[in-house]
């Protein structure tokens, strides 16, 4: 299995309370396994508040819905040993 690396990392975002915010990270290979999103070191699952998806096989996206002050913090994307934060 090829070593998947991060081609394009996360970018910082500032949003108003109640808005949605989307983070994108592009990886080098499609169908990357061992992928994880975190907010403030807490692993995120795909649910009504967090939409986790993959576009075009290589662009991993995380949308945080209706953010609140409690969502302030560091978002981390990890694939294998590689990480990107915003």
UniProtKB/TrEMBL annotation:
It is found in: Cytoplasm. Gene3D superfamilies: Immunoglobulins. The keyword Repeat does not apply. Keywords: Cytoplasm, Disulfide bond, Phosphoprotein. PROSITE patterns: IG_LIKE (PS50835), IG_MHC (PS00290). Residues 2-86 form the Ig-like domain. GO terms for cellular component: cytoplasm. It comes from the Eukaryota. Pfam families: I-set (PF07679). The keyword Calcium does not apply. This is OBSCN protein. The gene is Obscn_3.
